[in-house]
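Friendly challenge for the regulars: who can give me the C-alpha cells for this chain first? No prize, just bragging rights.
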Amino acid sequence: MAVSFLVLALLPPAALDRFWRRRLSLFTVSDAPRAIVSLISFAGFTFLAAAGLFGSRDPLSNPLPLVVWTLLWAGFTLLQGVFGDLWSWLNPWYGPWRVAACVFGLQPGEAKPSRLPPWFGFWPAFALFFAFAWFELIDPAPDDPARLAFAAGIYWLACFVAMFIFGHDAWSKRGEFLTVFFSMVARFAPLERRDGRLSLCWPGAKLFAAEPLPPSGTAFLLLALSSVSFDGLSKTFFWLGLFDVNPLEYPGRTALIGIGSFGLVLTFVLLAAVFAFAVFLGQRLAGDAPSFAKAAGLLVWSIVPIALAYHIAHYLTVLLVDGQYALVAISDPFALGWNLFGTANRMVEAGVVAGAESAWWLWNLQAGVIIAGHVLAVLIAHGLAWRLHPQASRAALSQLPLTLLMIAYTIFGLWLLATPTAG
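First reply, four minutes later:
Bragging rights claimed.
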C-alpha cells in the first residue's frame, strides 16, 4: 500500500484517468423482465418465511436463516461486487409495488406527491442498517427461524408501507438499507450498465464518477465497514478480556448484550472520528478550499473496496460450510422428507475449513483479499482526490493521512484474522 501511494504520487493524473475510463461494450439488457423476476423473488421470500414459521427449529436445517445470513448477506454481497446491481432485479418490493401501482391506478414508482424530506438524507437507511447489524451481531437468537421470519416479515411490510407514503424510488434509494447497501457495493463491480447497454470496466472504475455523499451517506458506508470489523473483534480473546470474560468459558450472547451494544457503537464512532480526522488533516496539508463535508462525502467512496474485502474475508468460512447446509435445507424446507432440488441427502463437507492445511490457505486467501481491497482503495482515493485538488502535488499531500489510516486498518484486519477467537 505504501509503494502504491508513492507510485501514484509520481504518475500523471491524465494517464490514470484515461486508464480508468476505458470501457468494453458488451450487449444490451432489457428492463422488461425485472418486475417478473422481482415477483418470483417475493414468492421465494414468502415461501422461506413460511418455512421459518412452520419448518424445522434447527437453524442448520431450516432454509430461512441459511438463505438470509449465508446466501444473501454473505454470498450475494460478493455477487453484487462482481456482477453489478443484481439486487435491483431480485429485491422483493419492486414487483409487488408495480402490481399495487396498477391496482390503485398509481404511476409506477410513485404513490403520493409527498417524498422523503431531503434533509432526511440516508438517515432512515442508516438507522435500519444499525438495527440489522444489532440483530445479527448482538441479538441472542438471530438464527432462530421463527424469530427471523417475524423480523423479516415486519421489515418487508414496513418498507412497503413506507413506499406508499414517500414513494417507491425515494424510499428505495434512501430508506431501504439493503437497496442502499447493495447499490453502493455494485459501484465496485467491473460490469457497468448505462442506457440499457452492458459494458466491462476496471473494478472500482464507477466509483470515480460518484457524487459526494451527504453526511448521512458517509455514516452509512462507515457503518458497513465498522459493523463487520466489530463482528470479528467481538469474538477475540482481547475484547472479551477487556470485560473480564473468560473466552474459554464463553457465556453466550445473552450475557454479552450490553457489552456488544457498546462495542458496536464504539467501533463506528472511532472509525468515523479517525476517518474525519484523516480527511480534515489531508485538506489542511493540501491547503485548498473544498469544504470538509464535500471532501469526506467524496473520499468515503474509497471505503467501498475495503468494506467489500472485509465482508468477503470475514464470511468466507461461513459461506463455504453453511452454504452447503443451505443447499441441503432448501430441498426440504419444512422437514417433511422432500427432495425438491435433489440436494436433501447431500453430505456436508466441513473439512474444507478444518485442519492445518485448510487454515493456511484460508488465512492467506483472506489476507490477500484484505490487502487487495486496501490497495484498490488507495488507487480510488487518489482518483477522487484529483477531483478535489487538480494540482497533482496537492492531491498527493491530501491523501497522505488517509493512506496511513488504510495501512493501519490493514494491520488491524490481519490481526483480526490471526488472533485467537472464542464462541
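The chain is about 65% helix and 5% strand. The chain has two domains: 1-24+201-423, 32-191. Your move, everyone else.
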